[in-house]
Design a protein that fits this description.
- The protein is an alpha/beta fold.
- The chain has two domains: 4-389, 3-Layer(aba) Sandwich (Rossmann fold); 390-439, Helix Hairpins (Orthogonal Bundle).
- It is built from 15 helices and 15 strands.
- The chain has helices spanning 15-33, 77-83, 107-113, 119-131, 148-164, 187-198, 210-219, 228-247, 256-263, 292-299, 329-340, 387-403, 408-412, 419-439, 442-447, and strands at 8-14, 57-59, 65-67, 69-73, 96-98, 136-144, 169-175, 204-208, 271-277, 287-288, 315-324, 345-346, 354-359, 373-374, 377-384.
- Strands 1, 4, 5, 6, 7, 8, 9, 11, 12, 13 and 15 form an eleven-stranded mixed β-sheet that branches. Strands 2-3 form a two-stranded antiparallel sheet.
- Helix 2 (77-83) links the parallel strand 4 and strand 5.
- Helix 1 packs parallel to helix 2 and helix 3 crosses helix 5.
- The longest helix is centred in the last third of the chain and has 21 residues, at 419-439.
- 50% of the residues are buried.
- This is Tubulin alpha chain.
Length: 449
């Protein structure tokens, strides 16, 4: 058995998107570990299914399990909803932090002005959570890089974490701007400013976007007009797959450091796409039953991916598939071979390998879940050169706005220098080039000499 103390992780949820995703994740984690809404182990829950509960929960003297989670928003609306919601008795109110003044979709307000007012309080809370850990492995940060708090305050927080906890792993679950859906016209500014500010400080970023998840809800889960609660439920399942091996013993487990080692071939090329299979509506059947080979194929289907990024238009660098349920290794190997001989292209400078994690627990679902249960399921994380095309599209949107200097005065008015726009854009151009260089075959480079 693994030592649970080796996998203690602190989750930090920033902004409205981050806090809402965090609430959905905590609900699902409680179901998986057999914890009720007050933080106590359910009487009818098998003790051998609680797993390494200390990964995401800290137990107090009353045997109550409290999430190792910090919720932060510059506006108090989302925090008040949590404090008055169904999980109000689960969380420690000391780690629910808000302000009375929001960031108004402005990176500069979250980073330079409003965010600076609470950063000291937030870092004190992080230290308090860290002191309650026997052996802290790292941090999971949840935010949207589209809005003001998630982008601005999220960047400020990442820089502080990098300085204070330099050797700890820092992974992010980020809501990325959608190609066609936008809640604010300045999303390209916020996203590129945030990525520039956090690029050296994050070890791995799992990206999702609302457009892709809307597509999953409509085409896979039979929801014509999904709510944000339902979108967040899909994201929570993706997070569950990624973190299952941290929390439950399995025949093939993947720890926090292994994700970094296997998924990130170059420091800046750390943006990861995520997919889930199978995706079936909970209203159609209690359980669906699919095989390992079908799961592999579905994970590479655009309809199962939580990011609007066409993997087939790039070259696969690394991938990791994480199973829940009993799967024979023969099925896994057949699935890998089927993908190797598909139309997916691969970089030629690395061997074609898939990191595989297997946990024999079947997937858990919430009572009102929109995702149907399956005896065998999997989450896949993919690092592909196709991510460069996502950054290219975002850079083009930035360029159109900045060519007219549109809305720039709102950022400068919060104390940000205009030169930061051009500096950030140049850094993102370098990121694009990094992805392009990753896609160039070694044979092509040799032919040039």
């Amino acid at each position: 058995m693994s030592n649970p103390a080796l996998n203690e992780i602190i989750s930090i949820h920033v902004g409205q998107a981050g806090t809402k995703i965090g609430e959905s994740c905590c609900k699902l984690f409680c179901v998986e570990h057999g914890i009720d809404k007050s933080g106590f182990i359910l009487n009818n829950h098998c003790t051998d299914r609680t797993g390494n509960i200390d990964t995401f929960f800290n137990v107090n003297s009353d045997s109550k399990y409290i999430p190792r989670s910090l919720f932060v928003d510059l506006d108090d609306g989302s925090i008040n909803e949590i404090m008055n919601g169904s999980l109000r008795r689960l969380f420690d109110p000391r780690y629910l932090i808000s302000n009375k003044e929001d960031a108004s979709n402005n990176f500069a307000r979250g980073y330079y002005t409003v965010g600076r007012k609470i950063i000291s309080n937030v870092m004190d809370s992080v230290q308090s959570l860290a002191e309650n850990c026997e052996n802290l492995s790292g941090f999971l940060i949840y935010n949207s890089i589209c809005g003001g708090t998630g982008s601005g305050f999220g960047s400020l927080l990442m820089q502080k974490l990098s300085k204070q906890y330099r050797k700890k792993t820092k992974m992010c679950f980020c809501v990325f701007p959608s190609n066609k859906l936008a809640s604010a016209v300045v999303e390209p500014y916020n996203s590129i400013l945030s990525t520039h500010a956090t690029l050296p400080h994050s070890d791995c970023n799992f990206l999702v976007d609302n457009e892709a998840i809307y597509g999953i809800c409509r085409n896979k889960l039979d929801l014509e007009k999904p709510s944000f609660f339902e979108l967040n439920m899909v994201i929570a399942h993706a997070v569950s797959f990624i973190t299952t091996s941290f929390r439950f013993d399995g025949s093939l487990n993947v720890n926090l450091n292994e994700f970094q080692t296997n998924l990130v071939p170059f420091p800046t090329v750390h943006f990861i796409a995520t997919a889930i299979s199978p995706l079936r509506s909970s209203s159609k059947s209690t359980y669906s039953n699919v095989g390992g080979q079908q799961i592999f194929q579905e994970c590479f289907d655009k309809g199962n991916q939580l990011l609007s990024c066409d993997i087939e238009k790039g070259k696969l660098m690394t991938a990791c598939i994480l199973f829940k349920g009993v799967v024979p290794m023969r099925d896994v190997n057949v699935g890998i071979e089927s993908i190797r001989h598909s139309k997916i292209e691969y970089v030629d400078w690395a061997p074609i390998t898939f990191k595989v994690g297997i946990n024999h627990r079947t997937m858990d679902c919430l009572p009102n879940d929109i995702v149907g249960r399956s005896l065998l399921s999997a989450g896949m994380v993919i690092n592909s050169t196709a991510m460069g095309k996502c950054w290219n599209k975002l850079n083009q949107k930035f360029d159109k706005l900045y060519s007219k200097k549109a809305f720039v005065h709102w950022y400068v008015g919060e104390g940000m220098e205009e030169g930061e726009f051009t500096e950030s854009r140049e850094n993102l151009a370098n990121l694009e080039r990094d992805y392009l260089e990753m896609s160039i075959d070694c044979n092509s480079e040799e032919d040039e000499y």
